[in-house]
Amino acid sequence: MKKLKILAAGDLHGDVSLSKKLSEQAKKEKVDLIILCGDLTLADQFSKGLMYPFTKNKQKVLIIPGNHDSFATADFFAEFYGLKNIHGYHAIFNDIGIFGCGGANIGIEQLTEQEIFGYLKRGFEKVKNLNKKIMVTHVHPEGTEFSKLSHFVPGSEGVNKAIKKFEPDLLICSHIHEAEGIEEKVGNTLVINVGRKGKIIEI
Predict the structure, then answer these.
(1) Cβ distance 74 to 40 under 8 Å?
(2) C-alpha torsion 25→80→56→32, nearest 10
(3) Which domains does the chain possess?
(4) What percent of the chain has pLDDT over 90?
(5) d(CA 90, CA 24)
(6) pLDDT band per the 50, 70, 90 thresholds, residue 2
(7) Positive/negative CA dihedral, 145, 146, 152, 155
(8) Angstrom distance (rounded) from CA 104 to CA 175
(9) Of the chain's two ends, which shows fewer C-beta atoms within 10 Å, N or C?
(10) Spatial separation of the C-alpha atoms in residues 158 and 15, rounded to whole Å
(11) How far apart are CA 189 and CA 133, in angstroms?
């Protein structure tokens, strides 16, 4: 089976020049899918044309909100720009199931750890029978190397619980800017903090 080539990034914080750069990189690298894992805006402020580069290049994009985005903003981006918001939902590409939870345990639309796990469970249920699964969150799992890089931004117990229960092949997150590019194994799951620069992933 052909591998799925993904460009994953997060923490755009309303930077239109960054969305243009990511879109052009995805085009150049011929990726199948772009995943944006939260903090699309800065404090929920709209930047004109933020997601337009992806629409213009007819790219397939999955998004989730971050702690800087309201859930309504993520829904608006999905509807207005023709993207798919997988907060509590799922998508399937090349027989690979992708499910996610946006927001965080801090921020504009703060979630409890139980809610974070619940949203992930809802998405997982739709893809659990597929051979490969990717979990997408904004916040990182607690008790990891990522957590040591910030005393202000806590890891998530709900994400940890989901990793243990659902055992996805891969978890893509962002949230801690200092952890950009760091990879870590949690159980059998590879966790990657993709950050603003983005990362090409083949699975």
Answers:
(1) yes
(2) 50
(3) 5-202 (3.60.21.10)
(4) 79
(5) 26
(6) confident
(7) negative
(8) 9
(9) N
(10) 29
(11) 10
pTM of the model: 0.94
* DSSP track, the chain: -PPPEEEEE---TT-HHHHHHHHHHHHHHT-SEEEEES--SBTTB--TTTTHHHHHTT--EEEE--TTS-HHHHHHHHHHHT-EE-BT-EEEETTEEEEEE-S-SSSTT---HHHHHHHHHHHHHTTTTSSEEEEEESSPBTTSTGGGG-SSS--BHHHHHHHHHH--SEEEE---GGGTT-EEEETTEEEEE-TTT-EEEE-
CA-based torsion, 80, 55, 48, 64: positive or negative: positive
CA–CA dist 33, 55 (Å, integer): 13
Residue 87 tokens read as 């907060």
Token pair in block for residue 123: 């998405």
Tokens of 114: 């139980």
pLDDT cut 70: percent of the chain above it: 94
CA nearest to 56, candidates 29, 86, 26: 26
Tokens of 199: 């990362």
